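Pipeline run #58 for the internal structure catalog. This entry was flagged by the ingest filter as a single-chain record with no existing model, so it goes straight to prediction. Upstream metadata was stripped on purpose; only the residue string is passed forward. Reviewer on rotation: M.T. Logging verbosity set to normal.
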Amino acid sequence: MGSLMDQKDLLALYNYDEFSEEKYSPWMNFDQSPPLMETGPDFPLWRQNDQSEVHLSEIWKEHQYTVIEFGSFT
């Protein structure tokens, strides 16, 4: 996904300004989610305390279990 668009463009699309089907439906790709107990894809995250970038794979190395909460800032 990163090669298709710049991260700022992606964030702008994700943080849509109103909750309407045409804006949220492109994100509803549950059929593309990894199966339960299978490792998901690696991607960059930003730490809440200092906004430093870290990759999910780095967190997996540090912790046996990892929970990531996703949500829109709508």
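catalog note: The chain has a mean pLDDT of 80.
catalog note: The longest strand covers residues 44-46.
status: ready for reviewer M.T.
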